[in-house]
Amino acid sequence: MECGEDENNNTDRPTILHFDDIFKHIGSCNRYFLLSFLVLSLCITSVGWNSLAVVFLFPETDFWCEIDDLGERCLELNLDEAGCSAMKNEHHPVDKPSTVLNETQCSRYDLTEYDFGSNTTLNNETSYTCISGYEFDNTQYKTSITQEFELVCDDAYLVPLALSLHYLGVLVGSGIFGCISDRLGRKRTLVLCMTTYIFCNIVTLLSQWYWMYVVATTISAAFFQGAIISTYVIGCEFVGPSRRCLAAMFLSIQWSIGYMITSVFAYLIPYWRYLLMAITIADAFVCTLIFMLVPESPRWLHSIHKMKRASKILKRACVLSRSEEHSYICETICSSDVTDVSTEIKEKTLSFNGLDLLRKRNFRMRFIIVTLIWFVNSMVYYGLSLSAVTLGSNDYIANALSGLVEIPALILSWLAIERMGRRLILCATMILAGVGCISTSFLSNEVLMVTFGMIGKFGITASFTIIYIVCAEIYPTPIRSTAVGLSSMLGCIGGIIAPQALYLGVIWEQLPYLIFGSLSIVAGMLALLLPETSGLNLPQTIKEGEELGTEKVQDTRL
Description:
The chain is mostly helical. The chain has three domains: 40-60 and 140-294, Growth Hormone, Chain: A (Up-down Bundle); 63-136, no CATH class; 345-558, Up-down Bundle (Growth Hormone, Chain: A). It contains 27 helices and four strands. Helix 15 runs antiparallel to helix 16 (324-335). The chain is globular. Mean pLDDT is 80; it is low at 1-11, 337-350 and 554-558.
């Protein structure tokens, strides 16, 4: 159906039995709701650049011990900056391959009694930790959180800890904001979340110590996730059933665009506090647009029987469509006692709970498999996103490419699952991601590393998109929301672990990518154990859910 096309021209007084019926008459992507949807999608762009900004807040930069004696010696010898750096390098301890820390960067010699004019070796001098702090190479990044809080050497673990706590906030947000959105309303929850994470960003850029930063970003991450949930829900409620998959894909593309814009922000603003300030200003602009231009979901208003507000919004949609019949339809659905069939389903849902996922064998196996796949997707996706800048010589281009490759992955995965089914494509994309990651770990050529790294990112982005669809389609209606919520929450643990997996690179540089690749391949093979859901109606009852993928259901399809 084309946007605005009337599917029931021959009916003078169309029957409205379900809220979705209205889209059959005013169009699956009505002009008013389409414009609102486009403005709404900017929220995902905003969350995208906020979430990926951490890549440039904690960059890997060269550093060394600050040695006052050497600084004074540079002045005495009247050395320029290059000559002084060369002399400092000569007077640093040699790295020991048997240790994890780099002694060249994390320790210094005791030069109190050393005769600089003697030209003797320093092997016998006593070395100790950098008691005077560190000096950082600020050629590319003028300031960063790593530099300001000196998160290196013995404190290097605080970087992955901050990132893991960020994703812990995402997990918390996943668990609470779905219910809040159902109770307070879609738009109200969205604006609340955006306003809160804007405030947290202000606190973050004013942080004077590490833990102040960590607390602020962990709280903001929870509200990031709340904004994402509210945006996806209201966005899909603005369009008809035939356009929801397309709407979800478009919102995912907006995330990728925000991902790429992060590189532009970071390139133009190499100071971390000013970078966050620019992002916060952009967030405030987006929030203002959404508050002023995006209406509340009329579907939600109708579900809680606020007919006057729903009618007012629907009439705006009808005014833009310039059709008298559309105006009549909008008035009909808001003024009559319309029965929403989903109410019956909600009443049945009350008799089921999360334990039903574990009581029945088929549900239990599918829940475990889907959760494991979600866990691996989350871990590998965020692991590759956080480490994308290490694949190339230019951090900004590498990060932008990592975001750009997601767009064709999203589009092609959507087209593929419509033609070849969910299960096979989910398996193939995860194996593709695994091969890309493992290949990257054994390459030294920069071009090949970037190429295979992007292949891995392509595959994991596609599989991450598909697992959302598969998860929603294999569970029956009475426990679908519970099952999807639990799987996504447990899957978020993968995102929490991802920074810690990357930190294992201090032991062996190739280890993180080998872990990502191996887990992706294993999870891809597990996907073949799931039932195929392409072309099937969504299971409405527990019995239908149990029989999904059996011979009985397959014969029914035929």
